[in-house]
Design a protein that fits this description.
There is one protein chain. The chain is mostly beta strands and about 180 residues long. The protein has a single domain (about 1-160), classed as Immunoglobulins (Immunoglobulin-like), CATH 2.60.40.10. Helices cover about 5% and strands about 55% of the residues. The chain has helices at about 1-10, 75-80, and strands spanning about 15, 20, 20-25, 30, 35-45, 45-50, 50-60, 70-75, 85-90, 95, 100-110, 115-125, 125-140, 145-155, 175.
Length: about 180
């Protein structure tokens, strides 16, 4: 029974919906990020200490003709405080950790296509970990466009401590040129 409960908990995940890189501020002013770029994030709702999980990030270029130049993916330290990074695919050209984990790429995402990134994590401490996932990119003539979504995972110290309380869906936090 313990094994069945453990397997059920390991399979629980929240599939975050695609969010366009456009959002409204508190003042109802529009901030436009990269036009027709969608950010998808899939993270486990919960896991237990010692388990390996995958954070999946998908960047979709929904443009008809214009490529998107992906520069970086930043994962907030507040989310990663509960995890150790085991693997990142595709492998970034450079990684840096200044409190947040920055994965640097020089990648062109063609029009009408997407690119998936798989970050394998091992949970190392119990708690609720919440943080932003930021995607930075540019067009040939512009630089610094970004889009942000939020990931949240509950890490239990043991299988018995976990409860399957359902899925949590994130909201887009901000996108800015």
């Amino acid at each position: 029974m313990h094994a069945a409960k453990h397997a059920a908990l390991a399979s629980i995940s929240a599939l975050f919906f695609a969010v366009p890189c456009t959002a409204l501020s508190e003042k109802s002013e529009s901030y436009d990020g990269p036009e027709d770029i969608l950010l998808w994030v899939s993270a486990p709702v919960q896991t237990t200490v010692g388990e390996r999980v995958t954070l999946m990030i998908t960047v979709e270029n929904a443009r008809r003709a214009k490529p998107f130049h992906l520069e970086e993916i930043d994962i907030a330290g507040s989310y990663l405080n509960g995890f150790a990074i085991v693997d990142v695919q595709p492998t970034p050209e450079e990684e840096s950790d200044d409190g947040d984990q920055t994965l640097s790429y020089r990648m062109v995402i063609p029009p009408q296509s997407s690119q998936r990134f798989y970050i394998t994590l091992k949970s190392v401490v119990g708690g609720v970990f919440i943080g932003d996932v930021d995607v930075y990119g540019s067009d040939a003539e512009e630089s610094g466009d970004s889009c942000t979504a939020r990931a949240q995972t509950k890490v239990a110290w043991s299988v018995d401590e976990s409860s399957s309380s359902g899925e949590r869906r994130p909201e887009i936090l901000s996108c800015s040129p």
